[in-house]
Design goal:
This protein has 224 residues and is mainly beta. The protein is built from 4 helices and 14 strands.
Length: 224
């Protein structure tokens, strides 16, 4: 699963990277957790793209209660096209969630050690995601939410965990937003090289923030 990540690149540079107009301020974050608002790039109604902040944890349009989103922070690539909670969004509401890296916890002799994973060149990337719009039955208030798609871990990530987020960069992000058929089956070819390092266990508490959370606390391991 992907349950914590960081995004701290200048928003203007990220907007340029993904060819989207920036109309909002985005704060650098180093410990983004479920139910918080995350930076999302999606197609708008004018055949362009927009940068928006959506709550992390997808609430299907048919849900009776928004609390269901707390359990839907990830969608499995293997079943996302068929699952009732995701299939409409998979067809019509794809998005990209901007990121610089994500955290995963590996079981070790003295407990679970958090690792920060990023691209080999530490460039900005995005997770493939879906978004949904839900209306609260009583108040009529509209809530827009998102989820991160995950897939089986590649050889590098399998040393840390058996799942990983679907990572897009550059052209692959465009293919995902444009609804390219078979995109998720092509992951071995589009996933960039990664590297990882252990970080301080302060990241375990979602209330902790700051760039020190991503600093290496041990050896950096790179994909070969």
């Amino acid at each position: 699963m992907c349950g914590r990540f960081a995004f701290y690149s200048p928003a203007e540079a990220t907007a340029a990277l993904f060819a989207v107009e920036l109309r909002l301020e985005i704060e650098a974050r180093f410990n983004i957790a479920p139910t918080q608002y995350v930076p999302v790039i999606r197609n708008d109604n004018n055949e362009g793209r927009e940068f928006v902040m959506l709550r992390w944890g997808l609430v299907p349009y048919w849900a009776k209660d928004a609390a269901i989103g707390n359990r839907m922070i990830n969608a499995r690539a293997e079943t996302v096209a068929e699952k009732p909670a995701y299939r409409a969004a998979y067809r019509k509401r794809r998005c990209l969630i901007a990121a610089n890296g994500f955290y995963e916890w590996r079981k070790e002799h003295d407990g679970k050690t958090p690792y920060f994973i990023t691209t080999a060149d530490e460039s900005t990337f995005a997770f493939a995601g879906l978004w949904e719009s839900w209306k609260e039955p009583k108040s009529g208030e509209v809530l827009q939410t998102t989820t991160i798609i995950t897939a089986a871990a590649n050889d590098f990530m399998s040393g840390l965990y058996y799942r990983m987020p679907v990572i897009c960069s550059g052209e692959s992000g465009t293919h995902w937003l444009d609804g390219q058929a078979g995109f998720l089956e092509s992951l071995p070819d589009i996933t960039p090289d990664l590297k990882a390092w252990p970080v301080n266990r302060k990241v375990n508490n979602a209330r902790n923030e700051g760039p020190d959370l991503t600093m290496p606390a041990g050896e950096v391991k790179s994909q070969r």
